[in-house]
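Worked problem 6 (solution included).
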Amino acid sequence: MLRAQGFARVAGADEAGRGALAGPLVAAAVILPEGFDRTGIKDSKLLSPAQREVQYERIVAACAYAIRKIEPQVLDARGLHRSNIALLRRCVRALDPPPDYALTDGFPIPRMPCPALGVKKGDLVAASVAAASILAKVTRDRIMIRMHRRYPEFNFLENKGYATRDHRRALDAMGPSPIHRLSFANVGQTALPGLGPAETLSA
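Solution. The predicted structure is:
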């Protein structure tokens, strides 16, 4: 519909890791070119890890995309929702060529560089948003697998930082690691240092 109205480059943007207790928030924006085979492009939560990896490689090989992340310390200092909005906007701004229109999952994003619309269940109804969800999810999972090698006691290999029973038990027994989100309930509360402008959004 948007292409029929003259918006040739439609971007979709989505994030992964919003509800995790540990690890970064990761977001992506994707422009699917006209004629791109959308077979298998769906909400990342509906795909197996192997299927996500296959689709990830297809997307990055053929599409304009941008992936960005925000570290836990910044999420604690700036707040999750504020950080999420800024991160999605940053991804869309990073696209080259720039989009004519942007779709985001769930809620509208102010100050976008182009016309934009928040779409309820966007990762289920818009292929570009679903593609962004795949890039964000695969990127974040890869990060958490690396973090598992550093902090094996939390089993990030399996839980990817989310609040499983075993993860909460490890938190209770050992306290949070340096990549836990201390502002989240039952993770821990500490005085957070001020952050300079360069630290607010890590790429």
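Discussion: DSSP finds seven helices and five strands in the chain.
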